[in-house]
Design goal:
The chain is α+β, with helices and mostly antiparallel strands. It folds into three domains: 1-42, no CATH class; 45-164 and 208-257 and 305-357, no CATH class; 166-205 and 259-304 and 365-491, no CATH class. The chain contains eight helices and 19 strands. The strands form three sheets. Strands 6, 7, 8, 9, 10, 11, 12, 13, 14, 15, 16, 17, 18 and 19 form a 14-stranded mixed β-sheet that branches.
Length: 492
């Protein structure tokens, strides 16, 4: 194997030293355009080092101007609004990879920020075509006839999409109530033990990957289904290399349009989801669930890197519909997610998302756990009231309206994250919850043994003088999930 040589942090040919290189996806290597040598790229995104992070470190992109960078231009699509990066040295004409609009020179705009990292394509176009073909069942009776007739998998396109890669050094604290079943659980009333619990630990996150295109962060999925770009995560970002404009040869790319400050709340929410999921996994004894009264994330340090990640994209827009449908392929792992038009439905996988709470690398250290029995009791319900240990509030598809819509003004740094109903669907859900709650109360009053509050539990040994800081930024005003005492907050 030929060793990779590097100069000024750039990938260069180990044979002739040239920087005019491209990706050879079929070989899974880089290729020198001058001497045709194949070689492996050296990663520029080593894992680890989160514990030493203090404050915000933001990489500014490639410090050296690489030959060919001045011919990379950005075009504003008048049809769908996308900002598409084109290598004008190779392309005399170009089209939008979202809606296929043909660009003219008059639509060129100032170029966006150059990323720090790029992850080269690994899946070839031939492999991508086959994956697109396999993802669509042309014999399905629910498939829109127009789509079936115009389906052309060979039109799949390679696109580099902009993401932020974030390392995080943070500290998590949470306290609330938890319940575990005791005795016979086959029929009501169910007996249980209730505990006051707290968890405190350092949360170290490695390469949390978040989209950095405003159009997909705040997207109505009932108009556009391009959130599937998020659903094909994770990428093997640890193998990303230093930015080089030559990687764009033969591919389209999209301009980054979101800065770090705009993404901090998304990062905080997703880190909170990881902490919550980890606690749940490590506390299987609480089978009736946990109600967290307060959760707080303190960010001690972070490191931000802008990156281009590779995607094979197939798009389709029906003649009489505003929504554009897509099939996306992770060009590193081959993960494929598609949303295609069907009769009488909004399309398959319309709400697909990245499961960041399970698929992001992270670890916890210096765990301090506290579990104090407060009472024993019985109930006709199988779960604790206002259970919230399973919630995921950092989802870019399910949660985007809550995070980045009209709620954004009320979810501020250090403030309590609150949930509000903003649509008829949300209002209906709230009314339904209230009705179910009233029914449970009536059952508890009418059925034998349903007094609900006369348990024989021991008095609590909860220590009010614990390590919880009474002067912290916990904000118990507002609600998430129906209980006025529950809240998530963060300090950056």
């Amino acid at each position: 194997m030929v060793e990779l040589s590097a100069k000024n942090g750039l990938n260069r040919c180990p044979n002739c030293g040239g920087s005019d290189i491209e990706t050879d996806a079929a070989a899974g290597k880089l290729k020198c355009k001058y001497c045709q040598t194949l070689f492996d790229a050296a990663t520029d995104n080593a894992a680890g080092g989160m514990e030493s992070l203090k404050g915000d470190t933001v990489n500014q992109g490639a410090s050296d101007i690489i030959p060919g960078e001045d011919i990379v231009q950005t075009f504003k699509c008048p049809a769908c609004g996308a900002e598409v990066v084109i290598n004008t040295d190779e392309a005399t004409s170009a089209s939008c990879h979202w809606c296929r609009h043909i660009f003219s020179v008059n639509e060129k705009i100032s170029n966006g920020a150059v990323p720090d990292l790029v992850l080269p394509f690994k899946i070839t176009k031939e492999e991508a075509i086959e994956k697109v073909r396999e993802s669509v069942d042309l014999n399905s009776p629910s498939l829109l006839t127009e789509f079936r007739q115009n389906f052309k998998p060979e039109e799949v396109r390679g696109v580099y999409f902009p993401y932020m890669i974030i390392d995080l050094n943070s500290h998590w604290t949470s306290y609330g109530e938890a319940q575990k079943s005791i005795g016979d659980t086959s029929h009501p009333p169910y007996q249980y033990e209730e505990y006051n619990i707290s968890r405190e630990f350092d949360l170290l996150v490695d390469d949390l990957t978040v989209e950095s295109s405003a159009g997909r962060l705040n997207q109505d999925t009932y108009v556009n289904s391009n959130n599937i770009i998020n659903a094909i995560l994770p990428f093997d970002t640890e193998n990303a290399v230093a930015w080089n404009a030559n990687y764009l040869r033969g591919f389209a790319s999209e301009r980054r349009s979101v800065d770090t400050n705009s993404l901090k709340e998304v990062v905080a929410l997703q880190a909170g989801d990881m902490a919550r999921r980890k606690i749940k996994a490590d506390s299987p004894q609480y089978d009736r669930g946990i109600h967290w009264e307060n959760e707080h994330l303190k960010v001690n340090g972070s490191k931000w890197k802008a990156a281009y990640l590779p995607v094979w994209l197939y798009s389709y827009k029906p003649e009489n519909e505003s929504r554009i449908y897509y099939i996306a392929i992770n060009a590193r792992t081959g993960e494929t997610v598609g949303c295609v038009p069907t009769h009488g439905t909004s399309g398959q996988n319309i709400m697909a998302r990245h499961h960041h709470e399970d698929e992001t690398r992270f670890e916890i250290k210096n765990l301090v756990a506290k579990d104090d029995l407060s009472k024993t009791d019985k109930s006709y319900k199988k779960e604790i009231d206002f259970r919230n240990d399973t919630r995921v509030i950092g989802s870019l598809s399910h949660g985007r309206e809550e995070m980045l819509g009209v709620e954004q003004a009320r979810f501020k740094n250090g403030a309590n994250y609150t949930h509000a109903s903003k649509s008829s669907g949300s209002s209906f859900s709230t009314i339904l919850i209230i009705i179910i709650f009233i029914v449970f109360i009536l059952l508890a009053l009418l059925l034998p043994g349903g007094s609900g509050g006369s348990g024989s539990g021991s008095s609590s040994s909860w220590d009010s003088g614990s390590s919880w800081d009474s002067g912290s930024s916990y904000d118990s005003g507002g609600s998430y999930g129906g209980d006025s005492s529950s809240g998530f907050s963060y300090d950056w």
